[in-house]
Specification:
543 residues, alpha+beta, Immunoglobulin-like, 4 domains, six-stranded mixed beta sheet, 8 helices
């Protein structure tokens, strides 16, 4: 802005420009302060996760103490020392953070601070105020360095160069690459919310560094016995085939192995090993380098720390495989054998297709059906019919059933199976019950009406009722019918009590001349359902 005498209009413009710059500065400041608040919340969440992980490691220490106290205690004491020294620094940082929050006035609505942009709070606390004869910032830096060194001292000297603890007193530099005192570079003219974030970051560093040390120490337990370089989560389940409603059971564990040394796995009978009531086997220690006497095992390929077992799925049913894993003690050179046993089930190839609109059972015939439950032996499957009818097993095939139904409507097939020693419902399926379709009436020579030669008509012996396009073996018998003979305007009628033409009917056919008409009507039949039914008419014109 220009100096000297200015017009009122120019003064107004200059004032508006200053206001605009102030507003822009406030906007940038708010964005930066918001970013610090978000980062601080993320660090808090990370701190909780790291604390939970460290607690899990200490729980593992407690378990190791129970298994072998003499071996675990030296490492456990060092882990406790790591926790003590890290807790000391963490609590100091927590006290400083609480002091900043109190002075900057917490905002319960936003979760941030009311005076989050205050530049004086952190400056006075760490750059200007003393603590024990030193500036508080200088004392904090010394505490950080002392804690870092104390944690490193808990690591074996031969291993220290491999460790990179995140807890350190790095000194920031400005854009001109000039160095400042640590406390000045870290806390001078820093907004209150940024100072809180910085302290949260130091807390994160100290928890992470403690975790690095205690994780190293837990791995040292037993390192003189067996060295493991890799860990993998593994699942052992009695079966991977589970039915709806059945419980899935599995043992989930952490498998440790040395990627540089593949395990020795042998497949074969393990009758010589002791089996416990719960199905497990006791390991066997031996000074021999060969397999135990009587075990004719075959070595299998090992890869990635695990034996790779494959077997052809020949034959339907339950299959069992056994073997041992051989582990060599690196100190004594002796071997320990760990027997194992596994099972799997081979099922037949099958395709299940359910045409939901064709689930029909027919009255009067045997309705065959296959009923099974995948993964369950046929002897442990039961089925029944609810409704008008019955269901029974086919003696020739345990998986086959015969359904017989008696009334039009619906019925339900219920299936149960024995799971975990008790019968459980596997569900049900609804079927519609229908009458067998009407058969088609025709003569013994399978004439269905229309034009007919006199000689052809005379050769017919009676009436049949045949089912067409029906897959069941069902027969219909003709129990009566009528014949109407029309010749030169005269009408003659005769009835038959069965399927054959009567002498009177044959006389009509013998007299038949061109243009005469023969009607077969009132055809009554009875089928497997024992219910009489009436069929349609057959008409012949003699030509």
């Amino acid at each position: 802005m220009a100096g000297g005498k200015q017009t009122p209009r120019q003064k107004m413009i200059n004032m508006m420009y200053l206001v605009l710059l102030a507003l822009l500065a406030m906007n940038v400041t708010n964005e930066v302060l918001n970013a610090f608040h978000i980062v601080n919340e993320g660090l808090q969440t990370s701190n909780h996760s790291l604390e939970a992980k460290n607690n899990d490691i200490f729980a593992a220490f407690e378990k190791q103490k129970g298994l072998d106290s003499a071996k675990a205690m030296p490492f456990y004491r060092r882990a406790q020392a790591a926790k003590t020294v890290s807790d000391s620094l963490f609590n100091v940082l927590a006290r400083y953070k609480a002091e900043i929050v109190t002075k900057a006035e917490p905002d319960t609505e936003s979760g941030d601070l009311k005076r989050r942009d205050d530049l004086e709070i952190a400056t006075k606390m760490f750059v200007e105020e003393g603590d024990g004869g030193n500036l508080r910032g200088q004392a904090l830096r010394k505490k950080i360095n002392d804690t870092r060194q104390a944690l490193l001292n808990l690591i074996d000297p031969a291993d220290r160069d491999k460790f990179h603890l995140s807890l350190r007193d790095s000194i920031p530099r400005n854009s001109e690459n000039k160095s400042y005192p640590w406390e000045y570079a870290v806390f001078h003219n820093v907004p209150a919310t940024a100072a809180v974030t910085i302290i949260s970051k130091f807390q994160n560093d100290v928890i992470a560094s403690e975790g690095t040390v205690i994780e190293y120490l837990i791995k040292k337990i037993g390192a003189t016995d067996f060295k493991f370089t890799d860990l993998q989560a593994k699942i052992i389940a009695p079966t991977s085939y589970v039915l709806d409603g059945q419980q899935y059971k599995a043992d989930i564990f952490l498998a440790a192995f040395n990627s540089g040394t593949e395990p020795e796995v042998f497949m074969g009978p393990i009758g010589g090993f002791k089996k416990n009531p719960d199905g497990s086997y006791d390991p066997v220690k031996t000074v021999a380098t060969d397999l135990p006497p009587g075990f004719g095992g075959q070595a299998i390929k090992a890869e990635g720390g695990f034996g790779k077992y494959t077997a052809g799925a020949a034959g339907v049913g339950d299959k069992t495989y056994t073997g041992v894993i051989r582990v060599k003690d690196p100190v004594s050179g002796h071997y320990t054998f760990y027997p194992f046993e596994g099972k799997y089930q081979t099922a037949p190839k099958a395709v299940v297709v359910s045409p939901t609109k064709m689930n029909v059972l027919y009255i009067g015939v045997d309705n065959p059906m296959e009923i099974s439950v995948p993964g369950v032996g046929q002897g442990d499957v039961q089925a029944g019919l609810t409704g008008a009818g019955s269901l029974k097993k086919d003696p020739a095939n345990p998986a086959s059933y015969i359904a017989n139904v008696t009334g039009v409507g619906k019925c339900t097939i219920n299936v149960s199976a024995k799971l975990d020693g008790k019968m459980q419902s596997m569900g049900d399926k609804e079927f519609r019950i229908k009458r067998i379709p009407d058969p088609v009436p025709m003569t013994s020579g399978k004439l269905r009406g229309g034009n007919v030669q006199p000689g052809t008509m005379k050769s017919q012996s009676g009436i049949l009722a045949l089912l067409e396009n029906f897959d069941f073996d069902a027969r219909f018998n003709v129990i009566s019918f009528e014949m109407v003979f029309s010749s030169k305007g005269e009408i003659f009628k005769a009835e038959s009590p069965g399927p054959g033409f009567t002498p009177q009917m044959k006389a009509f056919m013998d007299r038949a001349k061109p243009k005469d008409i023969i009607f077969i009507d009132e055809i009554k039949v009875v089928g497997p359902d024992k219910q009489p039914r009436k069929l349609g008419q057959i008409a012949f014109t003699v030509i």
